[in-house]
Specification:
By secondary structure, the protein is an alpha/beta fold. It has a single domain, classed as Rossmann fold (3-Layer(aba) Sandwich), CATH 3.40.50. The chain is built from 6 helices and 12 strands. Strands 1, 2, 5, 6, 7, 8, 9, 10, 11 and 12 form a 10-stranded mixed beta sheet that branches. It binds hypoxanthine (HPA). Hypoxanthine (HPA) binds at residues 84-86, 151, 156-157, 173-175, 198-199, 201, 209, 214.
């Protein structure tokens, strides 16, 4: 099954599917948001609204472990995530899509592992699934590479923080991409993200950041985003041919 974890603005993809069924999944970490399962291109697809219905959970309060665990439990093997981001580079403009190839994690308070009672160190050298990224890149007009910086939020960044992120090699900044990518790898699920650039980041933007500009851009681009995901789903292979499915191999510390 293919999972979509949607941020703001892509609930429309569900309406393109057939035989929609809705469920809430129980997990050891709490309940998932409502998940819609449907058929698209004759494939099983599960859509999860990351912030839960009505956008009630802000980024730092999302139950990332429940979300990813629920996807695994219903049989999801690959996840396409969408994330709104601010751009750190003038050439990556509001309205652009970017498929990140790496991330910098500046979150502070999030539960970012499933392994609290045994020692597991997964390899995350290449954190996003190579094949799923290639698929997204082939499905629409996107910026093909970039480093996603994840902050704790919910505030936007200071000018000094943005300057630091740029120096460290960041391309875009958002609040929701981590720990999702890490947790998916820990459960051997392929994961890639389409970042939707909703604004220039603080200090790169000439004006004060408002949530209205973020939502206005997202609203304007949502048809393109839905189309990109729709096409990407048509290209997913029946069998995975990437190392993601073996992520736990060699990652566990044996008990002594
Ligand atoms: N910063 C952090 N998160 C964001 C931004 C931003 O500028 N835009 C959309 N999500």
């Amino acid at each position: 099954m293919i999972g979509i974890i949607g941020g703001t603005g892509i609930y429309e993809i569900v309406e393109m599917g057939d035989g929609i069924e809705t469920s809430v999944i129980e997990t050891p970490y709490g309940e998932s948001p409502e998940i819609n399962v449907f058929k698209l291109h004759n494939k099983d697809v599960a859509f999860m609204p990351r912030h839960a219905k009505g956008h009630v959970n802000p980024p730092h309060m999302i139950n990332y472990r429940a979300n990813i665990y629920a996807m695994k439990k219903i049989g999801v093997e690959m996840i396409i995530a969408t994330n709104a981001v601010g751009s750190l580079e003038l050439d990556i403009k509001p309205g652009d899509f970017m498929v990140p190839h790496d991330f910098l994690d500046f979150t502070k308070l999030r539960q970012s592992t499933f392994y609290d009672t045994k020692t597991v160190h997964i390899d995350i050298t290449e954190p996003y699934c190579h094949n799923l990224r290639d698929n997204l890149i082939s499905s629409g007009e996107v910026v093909e590479n970039g480093v996603y910086v994840c902050t704790e939020g919910p505030r936007f960044e200071t000018a000094a923080e943005i300057s630091m992120f740029k120096k460290l090699g960041g391309s875009v900044v958002g609040m929701t991409g981590i720990p999702e990518a890490i947790l998916a790898r820990e459960l051997e699920i392929c994961y890639a993200s389409i970042c939707m650039v909703s604004n220039y980041a603080a200090s790169i933007s000439p004006t004060k950041l408002t949530i209205k500009e973020v939502f206005d851009i997202v609203e304007g681009k949502k048809e393109d985003l839905v189309r990109l995901i729709y096409d990407a789903i048509s290209r997913t292979p029946a069998e995975r041919e990437c190392p993601c499915k073996y992520a736990l191999l060699g990652a566990e510390v044996d008990e002594v």
